[in-house]
Amino acid sequence: MYGLLCESLHDFIKESYGDDVWKLVRERADVRLHSFVTHQVYSESVIPRIAKAASGVTGTPYNELMNSWGVYFLGFVGKYGYDRILKVLGRHVRDFVNGLDNLHEYLRFSYPKVQPPTFFCQEESATGVTLHYRSKRKGYLHYAMGQLRQMGKQFYDTDIHVEVLSEQLVGDYSHVTMRLNFDNSAYRYIMKEDEEEQEILPITSDFFFEVFPFNIVFRQDMVVHNVGSGLATVFPDLDGKKINDAFLLARPLVELAWNNIISHPNNLFEIMSKEPVKRERNLHNRVQNSDCENANRLADVDVELMAFQSIIGDDYKDGNSANVMESWGDGTRCLKLKGQMRYMPEWESIIFLGTPV
Q: Per the database record, which ranges form the Haem NO binding associated domain (predicted)?
């Protein structure tokens, strides 16, 4: 948990209830710090302890307090200029909500260890949208609801009524389904534009695969039947395997399954190889010995691979993959790919257009 959230809760309590209340809350929550550093990582238990203590001291119900803190947070981040990011996420409320899951990607450069929730939309209409919220953190639902309502007022001058449809625990994360009711008249215009025929410039699949050397194409049975040239260099045996046997899904927080991918068209996907990546040692020789026709293509692939290898280093030893996975439990020696999943009806397949993280 980054100090940005902790400091915003600290400021919210002080501004809403005063310094004396904050001192008492800090004592009851057993928090010795007087303030927090925004880019420093703190224990996940800090905010729940402070929020519960503040609820007890002020007599404000916990959910109500978290809701008010969510409203306050949008104003708080304006001090650091993050409100400018929020303002450009969409022209309408629907654009903002549909792109909500990708918001934290903009913040990864400043907060590389951020563990954001996952959002995705369903059943959009002219009166609102159904939003699915998944998070490994428990107790933050009303905080998120307060943010959503304030976002509508502050950036779009729109009232958003949030109705919780269901709330359940799925594995180690909570899954909440909520209906956002608001004037979504922009949806009508989007549907009208989609119905209009647009001229699309055709391109060959070979050219398409060349543009995306880390692509993966798989069918409904999850079996891979095309691998980009860059990825094939790293994992030569991937073609013909099931993608969920070779990769784990880091984001969004769902199982790597066909129906889940189809239902998340607006989400950014991040997958991670289950096995660590071997370091190629004779890339230069391979380029020298290849025929002229393939030399340029292989060189391009190897340049990308060498760039990735400069990150993963030289620690991999043949035959010791289990030890590497054990030593690097955070996955830093595994290949991470980030990109978009697109359904291709002509192929009856999904293509993952990824790049190495």
A: 201-357
Whether the predicted model's global pTM rises above the 0.70 cut: no
For the chain, state the CA radius of gyration: 24
More confident site: 341 or 196:
341
DSSP type of residue 242: B
Residue 277, both tokens: 């990546």
**Res 101 pLDDT > 90:** no
Sign of CA dihedral 63, 66, 68, 71: negative
Task: Pinpoint the alpha helices (H) of 128-266.
Answer: 141-156, 186-195, 205-211, 229-234, 243-246, 258-262
CA–CA distance, 177 with 191 (Å, rounded to integer): 24
The pLDDT tens digits for 258-269 are 988 888 877 888
Distance (Å, whole) CA 48 – CA 28: 12
Cα 331 versus chain centre, distance = 17
Name which of 42, 44, 43, 13 is nearest 27 in CA terms: 13
- Two tokens at 122? 């369903």
Starting at the edge strand that comes first in sequence, how are the strands of the sheet with 349-356 ordered? 224-227, 215-218, 349-356, 334-344, 269-276, 247-251
Alpha-carbon torsion 237, 317, 113, 133, what sign? positive
Fill in the amino acid letter for 86.
Answer: L
Q: What are the φ/ψ torsions at residue 57 (nearest 5 degrees)?
A: -70, -45
In the block, which residue shows the tokens 């949008």? 74
Asked if the model's pLDDT at residue 193 lies above 60, the reply is no
- Please state, as a whole number, how many other Cβ atoms lie within 10 Å of the Cβ of residue 334: 19
State the alpha helices, DSSP H only, in the chain: 3-17, 19-28, 46-58, 62-77, 83-87, 93-98, 141-156, 186-195, 205-211, 229-234, 243-246, 258-262, 283-289, 292-312, 321-327
Q: Which element (helix H / strand E) includes 287? A: helix 283-289
Helix (H) / strand (E) element for 122: namely strand 118-125
Residue 122 half-sphere exposure, CB side, CA atoms within 13 Å?
10
* 157 conformational bin, left if phi > 0, alpha if psi -120 to 50, beta if neither: left
Termini Cα distance of the chain: 22
Residue-by-residue DSSP string for 304-317:
HHHHHHHHHTT---
